[in-house]
Amino acid sequence: MKKFPVTLLLALICVSLAIAQHRPGGTEQAILKLEQEWVEALTKADTAALERIYHNDLTYTHSSGVVDTKASYIAGLKSGNTKYLSLDREEIKVRIYGDTAIVTCKAAIRLLNKEQSVSFTARLIHVYVRQGGRWQMVAHQSTRLAS
């Protein structure tokens, strides 16, 4: 009769370990959700959402080579100088390395830059870190692709 509680305990431990092994998939889904929130925040100029998504140490490197901080990037959006019309992504890949996640994709981007229409295709790379149980983007790099 004493074997039953021990067997039950061992079964619960095995189930717990199995669930823990599937966490990366859950983490991948959380990152994909955050990426979608990022796209929506850009296209809606939702700077409050970007404040939450971007880490204070953000390095935002544009396809032009211009580098922004979190503060300078959000200030540019608030000024209205840049307005994202659409950002359509494909080939999205997420890789998790402990408390770091790397996202790569190809994106078709349409925006207004100082009221001039700009459209291009780029490869994007985002780096996220998890601190205090929360994921935030610490780096954005875009590389414009030849038309």
Descriptive notes:
The protein is α+β, with helices and mostly antiparallel strands and 147 residues long. Helix content is 39%, strand content 46%. A 6-stranded mixed β-sheet has the order 2-1-6-5-4-3. A hairpin with a 2-residue loop joins β5 (116-131) and β6 (134-144). The longest helix has 22 residues, at 23-44.
- Helical content class: 25-40%
Briefly note the structural class of the backbone. alpha+beta
Low-confidence stretches: 14-22
Name the quaternary structure.
single chain
Spatially, the strands of the biggest sheet line up as 2-1-6-5-4-3
Q: Could you tell me the radius of gyration in angstroms?
A: 20 Å
Shape: elongated
Q: Mean pLDDT, rounded to whole units?
A: 88
Largest sheet descriptor: 6 strands, mixed
Count of DSSP H/I helices: 4
SSE series: HHHEEHEEEE
Q: N-to-C terminal Cα separation, in Å?
A: 73 Å
Number of strands: 6
Percent in strands = over 45%
